[in-house]
UniProtKB/TrEMBL annotation:
Lineage: Bacteria, Bacillati, Actinomycetota, Actinomycetes, Micromonosporales
Statement: the UniProt record of this protein carries the keyword Hydrolase: yes
Record-given protein name: Gamma-glutamyl-hercynylcysteine sulfoxide hydrolase
A Pfam family annotated for this UniProt entry: GATase_4
SUPFAM superfamilies: N-terminal nucleophile aminohydrolases (Ntn hydrolases)
């Protein structure tokens, strides 16, 4: 279990995602509510990726191998940093995978920010055939020797070839789920304008309205506007519309 979220909308302080809500990402790091798939807390690192302004089309990324709550500078930085497009994640490392800064989401390249919540069954042998489709360059430049970093390499190769966000995620989930049945593959991807997400083994909720959309592993508060995204769905959204395609992996 990791916890992750994407916010798209008018620029707002990062603290409104991390610290201010009663069940913001900092709270989810030490008191997550939906712990299917194992794990108890998300203390093995965190990451923030945010687009600072429309003039700077590339996101800024800050990752750490420490628990989010232990970064004493972060509350003030998050209150002073505003953005209209954010991906944030806290990590609970899967057994056998290293706790390093580079294993924490978001994984990033150009305008893209990516996160994986779950694990690939039988890693790494189960996905040898899937990885064989990647250029060797992509394999030797993996961020970390983890399942999430390989998933990112598979996603990134398709994005670079011009694949749309949603189709790219569903293709990669289809490939990996076939090669490694029983995997948990909740994926989250944004280019700063839209967000795509897959539910495959873990929770996800969405809240949209007033020109904003927020997609998160767990609702940040008890407000009535949150709705759960059904299992085996592909969500594609921007601040003006949310589309959920259900049952596409069953
Ligand atoms: N398997 C991934 C990792 O170890 C994601 C873990 C998770 O979702 N808890 O980084």
């Amino acid at each position: 279990m990791c916890r992750h979220l994407v916010y798209l909308g008018p620029p707002a302080p990062l603290s409104r995602l991390l610290f201010d809500p009663p069940h913001g990402l900092e709270h989810q790091s030490w008191a997550p509510r939906d712990m299917r798939g194992g794990g108890t807390i998300n203390a093995d690192g965190f990451g923030l990726g945010w687009f600072p302004s429309a003039d700077l089309p590339q996101p800024v990324v800050y990752r750490s191998a420490r628990p989010l709550w232990s970064d004493l500078a972060l509350p003030a930085l998050a209150a002073a940093t505003t953005s209209g497009a954010v991906l944030a994640a806290v990590r609970s490392a899967t057994a056998g995978m290293p706790v390093t800064e580079s294993a924490a989401a978001p994984f990033h390249d150009g305008p893209w920010l990516f996160s994986h919540n779950g694990r690939v069954t039988g890693w790494p042998d189960s996905v040898t055939g899937v990885a064989a489709g990647l250029p060797v360059r992509d394999l030797i430049t993996l961020d970390a020797p983890t399942d999430s970093a390989l998933l990112w390499a598979l996603v990134r190769a398709r994005l670079r070839a011009g694949g749309p966000l949603g189709d790219t995620l569903s293709q990669v989930v289809g490939l990996v789920a076939a090669a490694a049945p029983g995997s948990r593959l909740n994926l989250l991807l944004t280019d700063g304008r839209s967000v795509a997400a897959v539910t495959y083994g873990h929770a996800l909720s969405v809240r949209a309205g007033d020109g904003t959309v927020l997609v998160a592993s767990e609702p940040l508060d008890d407000g009535p506007a949150w709705r759960p995204v059904p299992e085996h769905s592909l969500l594609v959204a921007d601040p003006s519309a949310v589309h959920i395609s259900e049952g596409i992996f069953s």
